[in-house]
Amino acid sequence: MATPRRMRFVRGQLAWMVATVLLLSVFGSLSAELFFTCSLIGLLVVTELTAPGNATPTWRSRLRWLTALGLVGFASLVARRLLAVLPPEVVP
């Protein structure tokens, strides 16, 4: 059974992601990379905004793994973009 705090987190993340899709599509720049980056930022923001004050539930400890996986994905996106921008003489 989902707790109210967990459902608040899920609703917050879902609202962030829907707002991201809407705003990116309004500006005409909807892409998988931008959506992933904005969703990761949303995950970090919603995680901090819904953090409990005194005790950490078990389900929140699993968010660390999700956050770490998202940061690894973000690092790979940055590395790929950086390699695309650098001139061929710089990249071995």
Write a structural description.
This protein has 92 residues and is mainly alpha-helical. The chain has one domain. The protein has helices spanning 4-26, 32-49, 58-85. The longest helix is centred in the last third of the chain and has 28 residues, at 58-85. The N and C termini lie far apart (53 Å). The mean pLDDT is 91. Keywords: Membrane, Transmembrane, Transmembrane helix.
Helix content: over 70%
Radius of gyration: 17 Å
| Domain unit count | 1
Content of β-strand: under 5%
Largest sheet: none
Q: Structural class of the helices, strands and pairings? A: mainly alpha
Number of helical runs?
3
Principal-axis shape equals flat
Low-confidence spans? none
Number of strands: 0
Order of helices and strands: HHH
Mean pLDDT: 91
Q: CA-to-CA gap between the ends?
A: 53 Å
What can be said about this structure in brief?
The protein has 92 residues and is mainly alpha-helical. It has helices at residues 4-26, 32-49, 58-85.
Tag the structure with descriptive keywords.
92 residues; transmembrane; 3 helices; mainly alpha
